[in-house]
Amino acid sequence: MFTFKKALIALLVITTSIAFQGCPALVPQADFYAEVHVGEAPLEVAFTNQTQACCTSRLKYCWDFGDGTTSSETAPTHIYETPGEYTVSLTAATWLQSDTETKVAYILVTESGGEEGEGEGEGEGAEEGEEEGEVLEPGTIRAFADIEFVWVPAGTFTMGTDKTSEELSALYGDFEFLFRSEQPAHTVTISQGFWLGRYEVTQSQWESLMGDNPSEYRGANRPVEMLSWDACQEFILKLNQQGAGVFRLPTEAEWEYACRAGSTGEFCFGDAVSTLGEYAWYFDNSVYTTHEVGKKKANAWGLYDMHGNVFEWCHDWHAEDYYSVSPAIDPQGPETGTFRVRRGGTYSRVPSYCRSSFRYWNRPDARLTTQGFRLCRQAD
After folding, report:
1. 166 near 350, Cβ under 8 Å?
2. pTM of whole model > 0.70?
3. Which of 158, 183, 164 has its CA nearest to residue 328?
4. Which DSSP symbol is given to 295?
5. What is the Cα–Cα distance from 15 to 213, expressed in whole angstroms?
6. Between 157 and 36, residue with greater pLDDT
7. Which pLDDT does position 56 carry in this prediction?
8. Distance, CA of 328 to CA of 341 (rounded, Å)
């Protein structure tokens, strides 16, 4: 006989089943990225767990680093002792469901003292013609992996601004909180020269390597956009596997140093907002769309579109008070955070966002038409 008690039990079973199916904690989506993909042995790699679930405290994790070792930590750091390519996987599990994310040949560990293939006519020396002891002039152009780069020398500069956020708000008419993270102005030394992309990475360059084009505003020589920070890491991983050098995103300090190119003003050319249109696609002249790279004036070191067109992702996590604790030599940004730094302003922003010292941020998984990137390549 079908009693009220049986009906209640049946309802509870149905309700629980529906709740289980709809709760993402029971069906996690495993995901992760590594702060470093390529380097010499021993290589220390910090992994960031990006698994999606409504209650991460219920999840159990199993990392397989590809070298015979595993970990159950949420976000482990692992040291690779032996040169080689390593496939990394992460399994995230609840008591009912699990999901695994595997990234093939994700970590490349080279021999200590040089890149793989060194001494065999391959790698940096063969492609760029750089000789030991050669002194490169700022703005020297080389091509790596069919992408043009400009040499940025080591040096010291003043990072940030000596204006207060209140002064900047009064000067540009924007909200004061937007400028709070630009102070205090502080001296930073970039201890090693590096190669920085002459242009923002274009849609044709992205498509030739990745096989797709996520951009909203299409054009082969327009900057690729609708990119998350995470997507940039996938591009860099594939590029590093080609043997043309070690590529990465520039640090925030490297980006501002290269943008200024010796300038101490609000922009790479000085302080006059009236001149910005000669160097940048921004709110006043863009017709609210991206434009082909390299169509405006370059800065003193030959870098184009450092102001405007699209925001450029940097390596660093963002923290509003970071400048007060930043190291004086080669700052790398905070160790952890919620947002990654973007620099340079965009086609849709007013001049204040395009300034050399302006700092902006977003979640590393966010995708927008205003976000692209510029590559950095490490020198030997």
Report:
1. no
2. yes
3. 158
4. -
5. 43
6. 157
7. 64
8. 19
Token pair 């890491």 is found at 233
Percent of all residues in the chain with a pLDDT value above 70, rounded to a whole number: 87
DSSP letter, residue 18: H
Q: What is the pLDDT of residues 101-147, one digit of tens each?
A: 888 778 888 887 644 333 333 333 333 445 556 789 999 999 999 99
CA atoms of 357 and 164, how far apart (whole Å): 12
Q: What percent of the chain has pLDDT over 90?
A: 69
Both tokens assigned to 65:
């680093």
pLDDT of residue 113: 62
Q: Which of 312, 282, 313 is nearest to 296 (CA)?
A: 282
Q: Please report, for residues 155, 158, 159, 258, 328, the alpha-carbon distance to residue 188 in angstroms, rounded to integers and kept in the order given.
A: 8, 6, 6, 12, 5
Tell me the DSSP string of 235-291: HHHHHHTTTS--EEPPPHHHHHHHHHTT--SSBTTBS-GGGGGGT-B-TTTS-SS--
Contact 301, 150 (CB under 8 A): yes
**Torsion-angle region of 335 (φ positive above 0: left; ψ -120 to 50: alpha; else: beta):** alpha
